[in-house]
Amino acid sequence: MSGYSTCLAHLNESERDAYLAGLTSGADVDHRGTTLTAPLLQALFQALQNPTSGRPTFGVTRFDEAVFTDTTFLSKAKFTSVTIFKRAIFNGSIFFVESSFTEDTIFSEAKFNDSCIFTETEFTAGAFFGEVQFKKGAIFLQAAFNGAARFEKAVFSAHAGFSEAHFSGDVNFSGTRFAEDLSFSEAVFKSNSVIGPLICTETIDLCGAVFEEPLTLEAAAQEILCIRTQWRSTANLRLRHARLDLSRAVANQPVSVTAHFGPFSTALEVLDEASFPVYQSSVFVTSLQDVDAAQLLFTNINFSECWFSGAFHLDQVRLEGRCVFPSTPSGISFKYGFLPHWWTKRRTLPEEQLLRVQSYGSRPHPHGWEFPAVPNSLHALPEPDVIAGVYRQLRKTFEDAKNEPGAADFYYGEMEMRRHSWMETSRVERWLIAVYWALSGYGLRALRSLSWLALAMTTTILLMMGLGLPLESPKQTATGIVPVRGGKVTFEIDAESPKNPTHDRFTGKRFEKALSVTLNSVVFRSSGQDLTTTGGYIEMASRFSEPVLLGLAVLAVRGRVKR
Q: Which neighbouring-strand residues pair with 322?
């Protein structure tokens, strides 16, 4: 403090009064290392009060390493020059409500041991909070950061709120830790933003936030809410451990969401993720409801709890790496208590799982389907034809990525929903789809088609041996009259009608003939065997059905191996 040998707190009463009387609005103050009580601060603010506006106005302000012992009210204060609170300690709550900082504001390495409120505070130049420790809640509601906002390696031990804040300069939260939730709801980012890498053990709230320039978000968090978030420029979200809700989000430019492998690191350290489960680092997207997905790219994301109903342009979303979808139940169950039943493994959607569970009402589901987590935004169960549309669009996504096995799973789901739809699918169409499902699993279950083919061939062989092959090959008989004195001879050649045997129908020789007829029928060829009338009809039926079943089996195998 210029002109005095001791700090403001240790001046005697007459010296203190003289110092305060010499201050005017906008004066420079230097109270580095001073312990400031509430009465002392109140006297200082009154001395700096602008007679016109009534606002305490500071020039160059130095509170480096100062200690604020009580609740501090700096509401509506105006700092017209550089303001430094470096390594300051705030033992009580501090209120900067509606204050303004015209030039750089430095809080680096300060400690806020109680709540700090910066509501409607304006930082005209840079705001530097590097390595600051916030022990209680930190509220920057409707704060305006017109310059750089830097919170590198800051530690927030309680709630951190930047709701409705405006960031006009660069934003940097590299190495920042949040012990509770972090809120940027309704905030506006007008410049390049680098949020992270950071650690948030609870929720990051970006609901309603607007990003007008490119965003990079690197975060390990329990949950990230992007409901109604707007990305007007490109965005890159690299996440760990998080559950991401994108309901009603708007992406005007490409937005990528990637599950980051390995802990995040800054230039100097690897961020500690001890507060998260070691075995679970997957990123779950929980909702894409009412989202235009044309600009979205997902890499190595888990969609096992994601609700797609209501989204559009799903056929244009890009899925890279290993993206996980919920699977059908495993194991064997018994339908009606005695009929064995099992599901072939395939990708599904939570909407189908919920539909199958609720179709049984209060009865326990016999096929192992589990009740999925239902988002609060889902007010009605999607109809089967709606779910079929979602499957159809996602199938197109897999087809464009040349992932035929994945596309096959979603085609199967689409057909299943059409088979269960009573509104868009007619009775005849449902019957045809049901037959298609029973014979070959919609042309995707080779084992089912081959089983039916084996059954059809076995049936054909047995019918041929029992009814189709004659007792013996018919013999031709020529009959006619030879003139006595020679001349033209006319013969009539008749063949005996094939006769069914009355015994020894199932012999090795007859089996070989029946097998020859059946194998030729599979490849749509005539065997050339003599057959009874019944055998002729059996062969025609065999030559129609068995090649179809063989074709369905080949189609199913191709759908699984094609790339």
A: none
